[in-house]
Amino acid sequence: MRTPGIGPVTYRQLIARFGTSAAALAAVPDLARRGGGKAPPLRSRDDAEREIARVEKLGAKWLALGQGLYPRLLAELEDAPPLLIAKGDLNLLDRQSVAIVGARNASAAACRFARGLAHDLGQHDLIVISGLARGVDSAAHDGALGTGTIGVIAGGIDVFYPPENEERQKALCERGLVLAEMPPGTEPRARHFPYRNRIIAGMSSGTVVVEAAPRSGSLITARLAAEAGREVMAVPGSPLDPRAQGCNQLIRDGATLVQNAADVVEAIRPFASQVRSPRAPFEPILEQLNGHDALATVEELLGPSPVPVDEIIRLSGAPSGAVQLALLELDLAGRLERHAGGKVSLRE
Amino acid sequence: MRTPGIGPVTYRQLIARFGTSAAALAAVPDLARRGGGKAPPLRSRDDAEREIARVEKLGAKWLALGQGLYPRLLAELEDAPPLLIAKGDLNLLDRQSVAIVGARNASAAACRFARGLAHDLGQHDLIVISGLARGVDSAAHDGALGTGTIGVIAGGIDVFYPPENEERQKALCERGLVLAEMPPGTEPRARHFPYRNRIIAGMSSGTVVVEAAPRSGSLITARLAAEAGREVMAVPGSPLDPRAQGCNQLIRDGATLVQNAADVVEAIRPFASQVRSPRAPFEPILEQLNGHDALATVEELLGPSPVPVDEIIRLSGAPSGAVQLALLELDLAGRLERHAGGKVSLRE
User: Fold this and answer.
1) Between A and B, how many residue pairs show a Cβ–Cβ distance under 8 A?
2) Counting C-beta atoms within 10 Å of the first and last residue's C-beta, which end of chain B has fewer, N or C?
3) B157 SS3 class
4) Residue B288 pLDDT grade (very low, low, confident, very high; cuts 50, 70, 90)
């Protein structure tokens, strides 16, 4: 997972094909060479043990996809993080949860609303998930601190961002839960925030957007929630208030208008049973390839425009396992790009 | 029409059955007696001629259901007013229109929004209809005064209510159009406002609610618009603002969220072709009754709870024309109550 160039989807493919991480690691150099590139620089066992020791020293725990307390709803994402680092009350993980997200520069009224909504959702036994950012996120965590709240951060578990949220993050480690995908010590960068947002949306039965400008990160979270088949909810505002436009547009596009906790509870009721439904996260690839080598065919079918993997399989005429293997080889060679919605393209 | 106890539905039934108002008037006393009551006090020809003269003197015109400029969409209502008194620019009557309604005690922001929306709808060649009340109504008329606006009032055409709107009503008589269902000189009473609201909703391709408390008159207009099959639109607001709750609830119940004129234009586009579609407002009852008398049966089927006329017809086993005649007799005898949705009950 810490190898550059191996993302969550590639990781999942490798484990599905080779069964264990040891076998996958052993296979990577060969796969990459066949894909026409050089092998990515693998992290050593020492690197991994150092990180494990560091996480332990920080008082944090590991959550592994497909095991133990790993959130069931999150495991449904194609690009679910294989590992999460968690600090705080792990009991919060198997309860139904709702994400509350919104603008960092939200109005005082919106923050007050988010805090009240989070508090009221807590009274309905719901866990409130947010991103420990300024504004709406902070207000949501504060409102649910007494009943259960999970902060998902873009950087490492021991990094406080924004700095003024240090106390809040520490409070969540004590009385709530903080989750990080990146290794300890990671300073969050712009590209980390969409990864963080997929975890927020993926863990939650639904996402409530409180105040959001058009094209803001909160709308990305809402889109990710919709793509994951979860409930998207938005709090309306006056059309005269530019900060309400993102939410109003979401409602026009089909999001559920919510005015209070009762509206949210009603909207996410259908998801209640899914929170604890078991599911095999790594479906092993059992198909026999019989020496079928699809690499040349797949490479020819790919170009710079993203196409669905299903279409490559169909056009290639090869068994889907063979196509997946060819894609894995190109991927590990650094020549494949994976896009949202299961699409792939060849890197220029 | 000016006879107490003869409402728009009864009027329509009488004309459909007897062809002309003269024949209907001649039949009323007998029908009422058969229904088990005494005949309503009919207005004299002199009364009618006095009112006609008064309307003419006020510089107003008559619009008669099924004739000339009478608004096509309004004629579709089961309880369309048989007569309207109109003062102003009659050319506005055959153009597509949108109603803008809302709270009398609306916020300054809502009034500003209503004025801007009305102005922008005017730029799209739409006529803006409202009720010449305080607040949102007044703002909507002001915004559309240059492009075309119709005020529907609850009292007589020469009565100014609220008094501070006298100048505005006069301006609409000059540059827009004012419509009244009640005879000149009528001071508006509480019961007149829902009648006024059905005209606003009935003339319009859609109704936009700008700011409305739960259970307010604006929501009645929205319900009437929905019942007439027209587009219901609402402008959202913060859940923290009590004046936004009616609109937000409308949106939750399926109204289209609108933020600007473009949203409204898009929503009402399907109605554009209906504005000028001709339709026979009085479908004559051609059915031969062959002496079938359903009065006793119909009376037995009726009770104090409203039931659909269709159900009475089905249960009675009588021809629908015979049932309608029986209902008309009970109605003119003052023993029938007509309810929304074509339901009827017997008065206690």
Assistant:
1) 63
2) C
3) coil
4) low
Number of other residues whose CB lies within 10 A of the CB of residue A322: 21
pTM beyond 0.90, yes or no = no
Q: Tell me, what amino acid is at B111?
A: C
Largest CA distance in chain B: 64
Residues of chain B contacting residue A241, judged by C-beta atoms under 8 Å apart: 238
Of A109, A248, A263, the CB nearest to B240: A109
Nearest CA in chain A to B259: A239
Say if CB A343 and CB A308 are below 8 A apart: yes
Burial B244-282 (b: 16+ CB within 10 A, else e): bbbbbbbbbeebbbbbebebbbebbeebeeebeeeeebb
* Helix, strand, coil in percent for chain A, rounding step 5: 45, 15, 40
B215 min Cα distance to partner chain A (Å): 17
Which pair of structure tokens corresponds to residue B157? 């055409």
Q: Per residue, what are the HEC states of A78-105? A: CCCCCEEEEEECHHHHHCCEEEEECCCC
Strand partners, B345: B337
- Mutation target among A136, A248, A253, A265 for the B interface, most CBs of B within 10 A: A248
Of B112, B236, B263, the CB nearest to A237: B236
- Sign of the dihedral defined by the CA atoms of residues A152, A154, A155, A156, in that order: positive
Residue B242, CA distances (Å) to B246, B251, B284 in order: 8, 15, 49
Helix/strand/coil for A133 = coil
ipTM: 0.75
**Nearest-10 Cα torsion for A238, A241, A242, A245:** -10
Q: What is the pLDDT of residues B252-278, one digit of tens each?
A: 999 999 999 999 999 999 888 776 555
Q: Do A238 and B263 touch (CB under 8 A)?
A: no
Q: How far apart are CA B233 and CA B239, in angstroms?
A: 18
Residues in chain B: 348
Least confident range from B220-234, B261-275, B289-303: namely B289-303
Single-letter amino acid, residue B333: A
Phi, psi of B339 (to 5 degrees): -120, 170
pLDDT in tens, A129-160: 999 999 999 999 999 999 999 999 999 999 99
